[in-house]
Design brief:
There is one protein chain. This protein is of the alpha+beta class. The chain is built from two helices and two strands. The longest helix has 12 residues.
């Protein structure tokens, strides 16, 4: 049943049986710490041991269809629609700015 699902998916993707299909496992971890002789086996994993997470997954990739060409420089001058590195200028409503200035200049102290 699983093999037929994989064959159906390969057909849907347009993969051939002659393609270089690679099956890998994701969601794993390899211990990279040398624990020494007197390590706690309950909590520490010996160096180089692979553990599989509960949510590990299978990766099926087609290496024959993988595009490994490097990116090429553009054949034309690069003119982005939204240039980067330039801070846009903002405009303020002059009437609102004028009202703020008047409010700041108004004396609000009371004389007795």
């Amino acid at each position: 049943m699983l093999a037929s699902k994989i064959a159906e998916t390969m057909s849907t993707l347009g993969w051939d049986h002659d393609d270089n299909i690679v099956v890998e496992i994701g969601g794993t971890i390899v211990s990279g710490i040398d624990q020494g002789e007197n390590y706690n086996e309950k909590w520490a994993t010996p160096y180089g041991v692979r553990k599989y997470n509960k949510d590990a997954f299978i990766i099926i990739s087609n290496e024959s269809r993988r595009d490994l060409t490097k990116s090429q420089p553009m054949q034309k001058e690069f003119k982005p629609a939204h240039p980067y590195g330039i801070t846009p200028t903002t405009t303020t409503d002059t009437s609102a700015e004028k009202n703020r200035e008047e409010d700041n200049n108004t004396d609000t102290t009371q004389q007795s």
